[in-house]
Amino acid sequence: MLRQASVTAAIALALAALTSCSVGSGISTGPSPDSAPQQSVDPALRVTDPRDLTGVQDACTLLNPEQRTRVGAGDAEFTTTTNEYGNSTCEIFGDAFNAAVDIDTNHGGMTNLNSKKDNFDNFTPTEVSGYPAAELNAESTACKVSVGVADDQSIEVDFSKNSGGSPEMNDPCGYASKIVVEALRNVPPA
């Protein structure tokens, strides 16, 4: 009888140990309900030389004084704000043009943007400095260019030409891309 009680007690202890290992053990067998679903990256939009925008707290630091002059914004007013993505935006107000340089580290890069392409008046896939990009809502004096700098990060330049400026600014998408190229030089590698 004592032997049977010892065996029963050993089995009960073993079951208790198994239960405590499987419940609340911290081992995850799947995504938690709070985690955001991961979207797979479109192979055509995969970034082969990724950059990392997560450490950039002020988008205005992406254009140094020399670059500001090079893009015709040497005398412009630069203001840092927080954008709809929860990241930094650099707003540029000048005589020749206005622009906004947006950082997005929270919404899935170009794969996510391409999945929403029908939400834009026009959407033209392109490439900027070897990175997948898109021209959005292009008009005769305005254009937004979004560039995937990593599979899950992008930088956008929303450009609007004012009166005057250089003839090069008559191509708003090309000029937005020129600003992105300058900003990319200051985005650290991943």
List the helices and strands and how they pair.
Blueprint: H1 2-22, H2 65-70, E1 77-82, E2 88-93, E3 97-104, H3 109-115, E4 123-128, E5 131-136, E6 142-150, E7 153-161, H4 172-184
Antiparallel strand pairs: 1-2, 2-3, 3-7, 4-5, 5-6, 6-7
Pfam families: DUF3558 (PF12079)
InterPro entries: DUF3558
Signal peptide: 1-25
Straight-line N-to-C gap: 68 Å
Proportion of residues in extended strands: 25-35%
In total, how many domains does the architecture comprise?
1
Helical fraction equals 10-25%
The best one-word shape is: globular
- Indicate the CATH architecture: 3-Layer(aba) Sandwich
How many whole angstroms does the radius of gyration measure?
A: 26 Å
Give the C-level CATH assignment. Alpha Beta
Order of helices and strands: HHEEEHEEEEH
The strand order across the widest sheet is 1-2-3-7-6-5-4
Number of helices: 4
User: Low-confidence parts lasting 5 or more residues at pLDDT below 50?
Assistant: 1-37
Number of extended strands: 7
Characterize the largest beta sheet: strand count, sense, and whether it forms a barrel. Answer: 7 strands, antiparallel
The CATH topology is what? Protein Transport Mog1p, Chain A
Structural class: alpha+beta
Give the overall average pLDDT.
84
What features would you describe in this structure?
The N and C termini lie far apart (68 Å). 25% of the residues lie in helices and 26% in strands. It has a 7-stranded antiparallel sheet with strand order 1-2-3-7-6-5-4, with helices on both faces. With 190 residues, it is α+β, with helices and mostly antiparallel strands. The protein has a single domain (43-184), classed as 3-Layer(aba) Sandwich (Protein Transport Mog1p, Chain A). It has helices at 2-22, 65-70, 109-115, 172-184; strands at 77-82, 88-93, 97-104, 123-128, 131-136, 142-150, 153-161.
